[in-house]
């Protein structure tokens, strides 16, 4: 039975959906003012796997991932580039969608943009004002009174007296308490703005997700997810405003991916930051992995790297660890090379499949699930069982890996027909040299190709090759 760890309750407990057979799931998306970084990739691959496993378990999943397209950073970046905020957000929303597809993530059921839900946000703010949780401040903003919500700080485990206002919320002179956060910002010249009963303005960051989630999924949802940096203040504030407005639990399970750090040249681990020069966009990572492991295969290597850790675990990003992930995929693809399986569906009573299910039901433990795949590969290499090949392929496909042609993957995704023909010609020349007992030439060809990163593998069916 599936069990999930909830950040809110700080315990792992059996999963029970609000409606039998259906899961309503909301994952906070990105603020589209720049390219996504590998930390975004870690979070979205994690929740893509959550969604895929829920669907494999028989649930119908409604998956919402929002786009924040109005924000201080967006306004500043657009001004720096001399373009409109609409042009900027269109550019980077498209780039984000391309990156998610490249990493093998399913498109969300709904992908709402904040600017499309202004009326719903205004309605929610008005309800909070009516209930005494929001007030129109002297500076024109509408703010949320944090101390009026008795459970504030429960999600993050912070004492309300120790809290600081969120990084995206500038403390204004109109606030009654420095902890209060803005729901509606009064208009400034040249900024995007909408009309409201409190005057022209734009929404604060936190109100967006509450309004979109409740509009698309209902006042109580099954799962709310996001990166670890969103626990406070964003998700804390979402709970406060949503539950104050409805009097209902906002989300039954709060899920957060673990932190991602970058390994420095001296071996230490540090937070990814542009100021430290260790900032990796997903596009940077894809470019490097495609160059290293074959054009079109870098994304699977990156995805597999991310899957080798359970989603809540800290993860370190480095070229060396990516190389280890590639070696792991090589091991799996080597077991599949030349084999297609018996064409039957996954048999969940089969021991390996049962252990895979047990791992995934244990809070989506992909690290243990991948370990089962490696055991399958070892047994396939020993027995050549097509039944086990089918299991390996089927279980891999649930994680959206092992979907490429094994031989092409092992060859590094060679696209250049001339290069492939040259290697095949050298293999043919080597076979002829061996037949003529010219072993020195045969060995020279093997060593020459190895120096180029091409390893020859002799077997009963002849000689094959792969990139190393």
TrEMBL record:
GO biological process: cysteinyl-tRNA aminoacylation
Top-rank lineage group of the source organism: Bacteria
Subcellular location(s) per record: Cytoplasm
InterPro entries: Cys-tRNA-ligase, Cys-tRNA-synt_Ia_DALR, Cys-tRNA/MSH_ligase, CysS_C, Rossmann-like_a/b/a_fold, tRNA-synt_1_cat_dom, tRNAsynth_Ia_anticodon-bd
Keyword set includes Nucleus: no
Reactions accelerated catalytically: tRNA(Cys) + L-cysteine + ATP = L-cysteinyl-tRNA(Cys) + AMP + diphosphate
Oligomeric and partner information: Monomer.
Protein name from the UniProt record: Cysteine--tRNA ligase
Organism: Sutterella seckii
């Amino acid at each position: 039975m599936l069990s999930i760890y909830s950040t809110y309750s700080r315990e792992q407990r059996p999963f029970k959906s609000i409606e039998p057979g259906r899961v309503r799931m909301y994952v906070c998306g990105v603020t589209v003012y720049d390219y996504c970084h590998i930390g975004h990739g870690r979070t979205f691959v994690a929740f893509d796997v959550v969604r895929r496993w829920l669907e494999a378990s028989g649930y119908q999943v409604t998956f919402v991932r929002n786009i924040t397209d109005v924000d201080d950073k967006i306004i500043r970046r657009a001004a720096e580039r001399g373009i409109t905020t609409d042009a900027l957000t269109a550019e980077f929303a498209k780039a984000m969608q391309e990156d998610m597809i490249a990493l093998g993530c399913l498109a969300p059921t709904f992908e709402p943009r904040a600017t499309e839900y202004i009326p719903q946000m205004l309605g929610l703010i008005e309800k909070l004002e009516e209930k005494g949780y929001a007030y129109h401040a002297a500076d024109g903003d509408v703010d949320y009174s944090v101390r009026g919500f008795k459970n504030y700080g429960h999600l993050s485990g912070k004492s309300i007296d120790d809290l600081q206002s969120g990084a995206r919320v500038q403390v204004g002179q109109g606030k009654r308490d420095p902890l209060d956060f803005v729901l509606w910002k009064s208009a400034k010249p040249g900024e995007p703005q909408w009309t409201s009963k409190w005057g022209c303005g734009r929404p604060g960051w936190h109100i967006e997700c509450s309004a979109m989630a409740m509009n698309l999924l209902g006042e109580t949802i099954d799962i709310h997810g996001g990166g670890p940096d969103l626990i406070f203040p964003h998700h804390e504030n979402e709970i406060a405003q949503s539950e104050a407005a409805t009097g209902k639990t906002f989300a039954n399970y709060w899920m957060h991916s673990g932190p991602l750090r970058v390994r420095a040249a001296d071996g230490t681990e540090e937070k990814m930051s542009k100021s430290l020069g260790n900032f990796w966009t997903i596009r940077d990572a894809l470019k490097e992995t495609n160059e290293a492991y074959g054009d079109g295969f870098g994304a699977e290597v990156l995805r597999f790297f991310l899957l080798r850790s359970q989603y809540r675990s800290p993860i370190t990003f480095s070229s060396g660890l990516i190389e280890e992930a590639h070696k792991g995929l090589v091991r799996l693809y080597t077991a599949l090379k030349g084999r297609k399986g018996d064409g039957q569906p996954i048999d969940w009573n089969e021991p390996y499949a049962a252990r895979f299910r047990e791992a995934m039901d244990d809070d989506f433990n992909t690290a243990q699930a991948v370990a089962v795949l490696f055991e399958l590969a070892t047994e396939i290499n020993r027995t050549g069982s097509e039944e086990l090949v089918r299991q390996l392929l089927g279980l891999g496909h649930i994680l959206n890996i092992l979907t490429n042609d094994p031989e092409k993957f092992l060859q590094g995704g060679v696209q250049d027909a001339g290069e492939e023909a040259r290697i095949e010609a050298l293999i043919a020349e080597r076979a002829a040299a061996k037949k003529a007992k010219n072993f020195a030439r045969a060995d020279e060809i093997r060593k020459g190709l190895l120096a180029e990163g091409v390893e020859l593998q002799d077997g009963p069916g002849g000689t094959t090759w792969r990139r190393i």
